[in-house]
Design goal:
One of its GO terms (cellular component) is membrane. There is one protein chain. The protein is mostly helical. The protein has a single domain, classed as Rhopdopsin 7-helix transmembrane proteins, CATH 1.20.1070. The protein is built from eleven helices and two strands; from the N terminus they run ααααααββααααα. It has a two-stranded antiparallel ribbon with strand order 1-2. Helix 4 packs antiparallel against helix 10.
Amino acid sequence: MDNNTVDPTCRQQPPLAIDIITQLDTFGIVLYSALTLMATLSVLVYLEECIYIYRKVSSPKKTAVVWVNGAAPIIATTCCVGMWIPRATMFTEMTSSSYFAIVVYKFLVLMLEECGGDEAFLRRCGKDTLRISTGPCCCCCPCLPRVAVTRRTLFLLKLGSFQFALLKTIFSILSIVLWTNGNFDVTNLEITGAAIWINPFVGVLTIIALWPVAILFMHLRNILRSQRIIPKYAMYQLVLVLSQLQSAIINILAMNGTIACAPPYSSQARGYLMSQQLLILEMFIITLVTRLLYRRRYDPLPPHDPHEDDNDQNTKIIMQCDNKA
């Protein structure tokens, strides 16, 4: 298509909020109202769940539960703000992604708290080994040696996830500062652009942060089965895939022009809008599911018997003696 035939509005900035309101038709009013209602209900359900958690769950586990449960409603809220105010999309995306970076670390802490804390985890699993050939880093390397569960190993696992919570927030603030100065543009893939350096580095930090969570989950999934850790981990992974991978795919399609321009939205702005509307619906459903998983009391794990290993060893000795007799 010749450049002269392109609608000039397709090259403009995202529309103002007042322009969206004045141009909404009947279907648009119903759609925007329904999605706004979903985002509002997500926040209300989350607040009610927080009240329950603070009353029924002991500290410090309740702090981790509140952070993890807040991922879906926070993302739904930021998407709702970005849907109504398209020019704030940069701020809403950075806010939700920074929050989820903290959730990655908090989910690792949650699994440890389900075991009773760091000390209880070390007592229960101190003689075990961790399989590090898991995704997203080393799932194709089954030959990697297993790692003993020690205080140093636990510290490295927690550090691997905490660095993402810290550095992602720092890079989000840096990106916003550069964007206000005109130096950060996700569509600018030139070597002199800031996005081509910041985004891949953040991607590497994301993979490094997800690896310790996967390692710990693979080790604790049977121990914490009674705590419904598998569906909880599935919801955490689903939020990750939808908020990061799905949004990235839609934005790439928009930048390539696959998603058509629809004035007053450019292709990129329309891609953001589609992603935001999908996420509001998806996060609303996830909020309801996570409420069923977390707003209930589970029986505590049975205490670990420190003499269990000695008993097993004595049983083996007795069996050997019987065989010799």
